[in-house]
């Protein structure tokens, strides 16, 4: 399948996401010692954008940590992470920095993106040294592929699930190992039948897995229409949003495609009830903020969805948990 202009535009959304995340790091919203290597030109974002990315990053960090902690408490010593459309996401490096943790990390993105990411990793010692023992590392810059003990970066088009599965198997991905799948602002950019086939492929392949989706919803009200036309103007249509337009549709995409259970919340709810209150309090004091109406609108138009295949009872009790506020 050839890469078209719409593919190129969606690849650029990756750069945009990392610039916004770095803006948060620079303001102190969260720590990330590795993002700076992946951003060519840093730019300061508005308090509104910063707070949105803070909420996104904290929510995703929390649920990944809960998944890991849940399985560790079940005596599981190795878990896999599969990040779809990972872009220049730095979660692997942040998680790996304190030391080995029994996590095997796999990322898939278009070759155009993984080639750039592989070159950045190869060219920066603080990143390269976290991949695992030097003798386990294979970095193929021309293909945009890295395989190493702890980290695997694989070029692939998610519209071709067979090729993605073959690439994962060749890199040593083990479908029997408990796996956390992440699709952060990815599936919504795909045609609905293509994203459904990704969900179905993994639902049938992975018996013990959690699949977390973070993306836009609610295309039909005034704010949703504006959000969509802003992205369309930048060449990045949200091709999937008409189908996964609300939380119920997101849940159905999982339960109708091989996943045993699913849950979904909008980000207003996640922010209010699920995020660590101490972290929120700290973040809310970082910048003067008065755009409350717009903030609530934005949060209402993003969601966090969790699909689970329980693997017997290994993931019993794992879900989107509220925290005492
Ligand atoms: N997940 C990262 C994050 O949130 O920081 C990057 C998100 S960026 C908005 C969307 C990413 O999905 C881009 O890196 C893009 O190349 C990737 N992507 C979109 N469609 C894809 C496809 N069919 N196959 C592989 N990657 C895809």
UniProtKB/TrEMBL annotation:
Family: Belongs to the methyltransferase superfamily. LCMT family.
EC assignment: 2.1.1.233
Domain of life of the native organism: Eukaryota
Organism per entry: Coccomyxa viridis
Subcellular location(s) of the protein: Cytoplasm; Membrane
SUPFAM superfamilies: S-adenosyl-L-methionine-dependent methyltransferases
Name the record gives this protein: Leucine carboxyl methyltransferase 1 homolog
Phylogenetic placement of the source organism: Eukaryota, Viridiplantae, Chlorophyta, core chlorophytes, Trebouxiophyceae
Job description of the protein: Involved in brassinosteroid (BR) signaling.
The keyword Lipid biosynthesis appears for this protein: no
The protein's enzyme class: transferase
């Amino acid at each position: 399948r050839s890469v078209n202009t719409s593919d190129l535009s969606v690849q650029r959304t990756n750069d945009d996401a990392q610039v916004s995340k770095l803006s948060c790091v620079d303001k102190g919203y969260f720590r990330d010692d590795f993002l700076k290597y992946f951003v060519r030109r840093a730019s300061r974002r508005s308090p509104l954008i910063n707070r949105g990315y803070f909420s996104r990053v904290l929510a995703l960090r929390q649920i990944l940590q809960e998944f890991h902690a849940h399985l560790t408490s079940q005596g599981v010593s190795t878990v896999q992470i599969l990040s779809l459309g990972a872009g220049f996401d730095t979660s692997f490096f942040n998680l790996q920095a304190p030391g080995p943790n029994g996590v095997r990390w796999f990322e898939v993105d278009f070759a155009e993106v993984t080639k750039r990411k592989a070159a950045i990793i190869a060219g920066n010692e603080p990143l390269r040294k976290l991949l695992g023992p030097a003798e386990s590392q294979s970095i193929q810059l021309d293909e945009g592929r890295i395989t190493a003990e702890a980290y695997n970066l694989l070029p692939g088009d998610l519209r071709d699930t067979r090729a993605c599965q073959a690439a994962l198997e060749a890199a040593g991905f083990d479908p029997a190992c408990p796996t956390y799948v992440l699709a952060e602002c990815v599936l919504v950019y795909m045609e609905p039948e293509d994203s459904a086939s990704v969900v179905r492929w993994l639902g049938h392949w992975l018996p013990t897995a959690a699949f977390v989706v973070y993306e836009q919803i609610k295309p039909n009200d005034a704010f949703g229409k504006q959000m969509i036309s802003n992205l369309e103007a930048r060449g990045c249509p949200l091709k999937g949003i008409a189908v996964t337009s609300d939380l119920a549709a997101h849940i159905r995409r999982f339960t109708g495609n091989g996943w045993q259970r699913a849950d979904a919340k909008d980000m207003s709810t996640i922010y209010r009830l699920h995020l660590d209150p101490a972290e929120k309090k700290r973040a809310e004091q970082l910048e003067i903020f008065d755009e409350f109406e717009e903030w609530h609108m934005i949060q209402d138009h993003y969601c966090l969805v969790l699909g689970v295949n329980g693997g017997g009872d290994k993931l019993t009790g794992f879900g989107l948990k509220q925290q005492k506020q």
